[in-house]
Design brief:
Layout: E1 13-14, H1 25-35, E2 39-44, E3 47-53, H2 54-61, E4 83-84, H3 90-100, E5 104-108, E6 114-119, H4 120-134
Parallel strand pairs: 4-5
Antiparallel strand pairs: 1-6, 2-3, 5-6
Length: about 140
Amino acid sequence: MTKPIPPVSKYMTSMPLSIEPNQSLAEAKKKMHEVHARHLPVRSAGKVVGLLSDRDIGLLASFAQLDLNTMKVSDAMMLDPYCVHPDVPVDTVCAEMAEKRYGSALVVQENDRLVGIFTYTDALRALSEVFGTRLKK
């Protein structure tokens, strides 16, 4: 008998730290460093509007003429990030992330309310559980 595939909500990080589009990239970098995150959901009026990664910030920081204190999150964020409902099976999310080379998926309820983030680190945790418990004899 096979076990059902768990939803992405089982492995996501609940209530992740987020940032507003009008905040500076320096503030975003500081927040990421404080919580050891590589991805920050961007929210406006409580709804997901984008995603900012440490790579986005690092690329802009490499240009000497750009100042992270004056640049806004909205200048660097990715619009239309990959979002999924908490009930989507984790294998479906992992397959999409692998195919499109996404580093994370934002987990949202109806009306774009952020409830979690699922990163490739979470995907590895799920894989480890499968190998460690479901496939072990």
